[in-house]
Write a structure and sequence with these properties.
44% of the residues are buried. The chain has 670 residues and is α/β, with parallel strands linked by helices. It binds a DNA duplex (15 and 10 nucleotides) through helix 5, helix 10 and helix 20.
DNA sequence: CCCATCATGGTTTTT
DNA sequence: CCATGATGGG
């Protein structure tokens, strides 16, 4: 893979004169960081200070200095972020940067494990369990141990415990103790002993299935690095420079992965902002970034504090928000833009009035010259946008929403993919049972029985196996199965390429799934459209297997970027959780439900001690997404489905602001 | 015994 | 609006 003709490893190449535009494109802070000498580097980049630009130019700088592109590793929070940065770097440095490896931690771990998982006792064709797969597997483990009492925790809760234990390298027993035995446990009750038993069963089942969940990707990659020195060394030699974006959101495992990867050259550059750490609940620990100078005493630290994004009035609010949390790294955002006006605080009666106010505000912003895609509506939790979605539909305002369910986690997509998975991997039990339970009259039990009867593998290209499967089915199911089998004929031959896979999916939809969707889903039409889009999309991949691997790790943001590229992106309002708005910006930002009981989230406050601080950082992230205009909506009532109302005082994050930070509007005229 | 259907209850954030 | 739980049919 490596190109010849590069300087020998370890020798410091003579830096060529910098292209002039480096100095023009970057301010002195950014330039210093982007052109920092080799060795450990910490870049503390507050919101809107050109963090991405700095990373882009760092990549370009390394390439210009003669570092081969494939020896640069860029770890980002989403794949989309990596893609965009590398695209921009290409504009600056040209072809010298093509071949830089960029992506998420999970992506990197996945890539390494595809190659080396056999060292850990997995087959290299292991499958990846998404959240729903994992949940169902845990449920089956709970049932197998006859623990399914009413007060036993839900599988999703158990999984979050497993995940916390894995990502923070804390013994599960302690995590379970803290969660279920402490005072906050409330209605949940579980013996740590039972939790451990379920966990053990879950681990065993994953092994049997040759499957890894998301956490396993990281955990196993780290295990590989710890236990297999030759593997670690191979990657240390491959990557001469490691760059990490959003470092404040790394967890213990990710931090160690990075430390080990960079241990050879120590050319490690991390960028982040401790005040934008918002993934603590997923094991992220902002102390990773705070302690970086201790772990790397020779690290150079660069601070970016000049904000190019927001008008000064928004930064006043952001700075005040940070000041409310004295225990954190203090920094001050310095404005560069001209004064405009203060953020607005809209006092509203309830969620419906809030929705109408947003629609009205959007109209006004459009009159003022903004396009719909210049405007984003952000909120703490998906369900906060319910009334607004209705109002936008009624007002015929086009909007795009990153909903809670990811594209590839929707039932119909997973149904189609199970067909492809069993083709690619005849031992994929989950894919087989999922496919079979699509047949009327076949449920979990029957599917299991058939699977066992087939010897726990099903090679769809083997006529004998297909004969045995048909024989095992009841007549009604058999007829339905024959329709599916017809689609499999599209894939005769060796490893199917993407376009053959696409044709198989189309056949599957025509012969079987269309009928199934009509009787199963209310909005069957849009689901069939999704399937067609998937079939088209797959054609771009060289193999079905490559496509399946890729999609397992796509994030919401990634998937939606793909959709936008396909759909030629019409003008639309953006609706998003604050978490998914991380790293993005808009001229106009409207923040919903800035009230107690909604934001901060009461569950977070109850569950963990640092909860309020993280919610405050989330508020900071939300307000610093705005360039020109920021509106905070504060409804005073929540209407519950049972007809009751709950009074909501304004959020503490608003009340703790110094006076005159915002302009209060009590009534909006319609 | 196993599967499908309907009612019901309770909602954070995501790789 | 989705996941689980009771119920009835095969």
């Amino acid at each position: 893979m490596r190109e010849g003709g590069q300087p020998p490893r370890g020798a410091a190449p003579e830096p060529p004169a910098l292209p002039l535009d480096f100095g023009r494109a970057l301010n002195p802070e950014q330039l210093a960081a982007a052109t920092a000498p080799d060795g450990p580097v910490l870049v503390l980049a507050a919101a809107g200070t050109g963090k991405t630009r700095t990373l882009v130019y760092r990549v370009a700088y390394l390439a210009a200095r003669g570092v081969a592109a494939d020896r640069i590793l860029l770890l980002t929070f989403t794949n989309k972020a990596a893609r965009e940065m590398l695209e921009r770097a290409r504009q600056v440095a040209g072809a010298a940067v093509s071949g830089v490896w960029g992506g998420t931690f999970h992506h990197l771990a996945h890539r390494i494990l595809r190659r080396y998982a056999p060292h850990l006792g997995y087959g290299s064709d292991f499958t990846i369990l998404d959240r729903d797969d994992a949940r169902q597997l845990v449920t089956s483990c709970v049932r197998a141990r006859r623990l399914e009492r009413r007060d036993f925790p839900r599988s999703a809760v158990l999984l979050s415990l497993f995940s916390t234990a894995a990502n923070t390298e804390t013994p599960l027993e302690r995590v379970a103790q803290e969660r279920f035995v402490s005072a906050a446990a409330g209605d949940l009750a579980a013996e740590p002993r039972d939790v451990l038993a379920v966990h053990a069963a879950y681990e065993t089942r994953k092994r049997e299935l040759n499957a890894m969940d998301f956490d396993d990707l990281l955990v196993n990659c780290l295990r590989l690095f710890r236990e297999r020195e030759e593997v670690l060394r191979r990657y240390q030699e491959q990557f001469a420079h490691v760059l990490v974006d959003e470092y404040q959101d790394t967890n213990t495992i990710q931090a160690e992965l990075v430390d080990r990867l960079a241990a050879g050259t120590r050319n490690l550059l991390v960028v982040g902002d401790d005040f934008q750490s918002i993934y603590g609940w997923r094991g992220a620990d902002y102390r990773n970034i705070l302690s970086f100078p201790e772990r790397y005493p020779d690290a150079r630290t660069y601070k970016l504090e000049t904000n190019y994004r927001s008008v000064p009035e928004i930064l006043v609010l952001a700075n005040a928000c940070m000041a409310a949390q004295p225990e954190q790294f203090q920094k001050t955002l310095r404005p560069t833009r001209e004064a405009r006006h203060r953020p607005r605080l809209l006092r509203l009666r309830d969620g419906d009035e809030q929705a109408r106010a947003v629609v009205e505000s959007v109209r006004r912003f459009r009159q003022a010259g903004y396009g719909l895609s210049d405007i984003a509506v952000l909120y703490r939790a998906h369900f906060h946008a319910l009334e607004l979605e209705r109002a936008l539909a009624a007002a015929r305002l086009p909007y795009v929403i990153t909903s809670g369910v990811r594209f590839f986690e929707q039932a119909h997509i997973k149904d189609v993919c199970s067909l492809l998975k069993i083709l690619v991997c005849p031992t994929d039990e989950l894919a087989f049972t999922r496919l079979l339970t699509l047949l009327t009259g076949v449920g979990e039990k029957t599917a299991q029985k058939v699977w066992a009867g087939l010897g726990r593998r099903f090679d769809a290209r083997d006529p004998a196996a297909r004969g045995r499967l048909e024989a095992a089915l009841r007549p009604a199911a058999r007829a339905a199965w024959r329709k599916i089998a017809g689609a499999l004929d599209e894939l005769q031959g060796a490893a199917p390429d993407g376009s053959a896979g696409g044709r198989a999916v189309e056949q599957f939809a025509q012969r079987f799934y269309e009928d199934y969707a009509r009787r199963t889903f209310e909005e069957w039409e849009s689901r069939l459209e999704d399937i067609q889009a998937l079939a088209d999309d797959m054609g771009r991949y060289e193999s079905v297997a490559a496509y399946l691997n890729e999609m397992a790790l796509l994030t919401n943001v990634d998937a939606e970027a793909d959709a936008a590229r396909e759909g030629a992106g019409g003008e639309a309002l953006r609706l998003s959780t604050i978490h998914q708005a991380k790293g993005l910006e808009w001229p106009v930002v409207i923040l919903l439900w800035v009230c107690e009981g909604m934001f901060p989230s009461p569950r977070t406050l109850a569950e963990n001690f640092g909860g309020e601080a993280e919610e405050r950082r989330l508020f900071y992230v939300a307000v610093t997404r705005a360039r020109d205009e920021l509106c905070l909506c504060v409804p005073e009532l929540r209407r519950m489905r049972d007809g009751g109302v709950i009074y909501c005082p304004p959020s503490r994050f608003v009340r703790e602001l110094p006076p005159r930070c915002v302009q209060e509007l009590r009534r909006v005229s319609f």
